[in-house]
Amino acid sequence: MRSLLEDVAAGSLDVEQAMLRLKEAPFEDLGFAKPDHHRALRQGIAEVIYGAGKTPEQIRQIALHMRSHGQKTVLITRMSGEAAELVGRELPLRYDELSRVGIIGDLPEPDGIGRIVIATGGTSDIPVAEEAAHTAEAFGNEVDRLYDVGVAGIHRLFAYREEIMSARVIIAIAGMEGALASVIGGMADCPVIAVPTSVGYGASFGGLSALLSMLNSCASGVSVVNIDNGFGAGYLASMINHMRRQ
C-alpha cells in the first residue's frame, strides 16, 4: 500500500491505475480459493495455508500467488508429504515431516518482546508442539523448547524454573489428564496457553479429558485452545509476545 501511494505521488502511476490495483488487492479469486492479500495489513500477520483437505496442486497454486503478491514467508500447516514434494519443486520450501508444517521463504528475524517457551508433558506431544514452535518462529519469535517435562516426573519441570519464570508467554502441551498446564500456571507470571492433545489411553476420549481438565484449571492466567491445535497456540502466543505496553 505504501509503495502504491509513493508511485502515485511520484507520478509513475496514475490515479486510475492505482484504483484498479486497489480493487484487485484485497483478495484474489482462484476459483477454488480466495487468497486474502490484505490479511497482514489488517491483522499484522499474513494469511496461512491450512493444508488438510487441499490437493497438492491447490496448495501449490495458492502458495505461488501469495509469493507473487510479495509475501516473503508462507506458512503451511497440516501439509502432506506429497504436497511438500510438489511445492518444493518450484518454491524454497522447508518441510518438517513430524509436525507436517511447511515454510516457504526465510524466517523473519525475531522481533518479539521476549521468549515463548513451549513445554510438553511427553515425547508423544512433540508433533503438536513443533507445529506451535514453527508457527511462532514464522511470525518472528524466539522459541525455547522444553520437551518431556510432564507431571509423572515433576522434578524434570522444576529443573527449568529459570526458563519458565523468565518467559513472556508459555505454551503448555499435554494429553492424558492435562495437568501440566495447571502446574506451569501456578509457577509462571506470564500468560499460559494450554493445548490438550489426543494422546492418552481409552478413557481420554481423543483429548477430551485433557481439554476439560485444562478448562477447569484452578491456576489463574491459563487459557485453552482446541485439541491438537498447535497452530492456534503459536499464533496467539506470537500476538501476546508482540504487544507492547503503552
Report the principal-axis shape.
Answer: globular
Cα end-to-end separation? 26 Å
Question: How many helix segments?
Answer: 11
Spatially, the strands of the biggest sheet line up as: 6-5-7-8-9
Proportion of β residues?
Answer: 15-25%
Helical coverage, percent range = 25-40%
The secondary-structure element order is HHHEHEHEEEHEHHEHEHEH
Rg over CA atoms: 20 Å
Number of strands: 9
- Structure class: alpha/beta
Written overview of the protein:
37% of the residues lie in helices and 16% in strands. It is built from 11 helices and 9 strands. The strands form 2 sheets. It has a 5-stranded parallel beta sheet. Strands 1-2-4-3 form a 4-stranded mixed beta sheet, with helices on both faces. Helix 6 (126-138) runs parallel beside helix 11 (230-241).
Structure in a nutshell:
The protein has 246 residues and is an alpha/beta fold.
Question: What order do the helices and strands come in, and which of them pair?
Answer:
Blueprint lengths: L1 H9 L4 H10 L14 H5 L5 E2 L5 H13 L5 E4 L3 H7 L5 E4 L4 E4 L10 E6 L5 H13 L3 E5 L8 H4 L2 H5 L3 E6 L5 H6 L6 E5 L11 H8 L6 E3 L5 H12 L5
Parallel strand pairs: 1-2, 5-6, 5-7, 7-8, 8-9
Antiparallel strand pairs: 2-4, 3-4
Helix pairs in contact: 4-5, 6-11
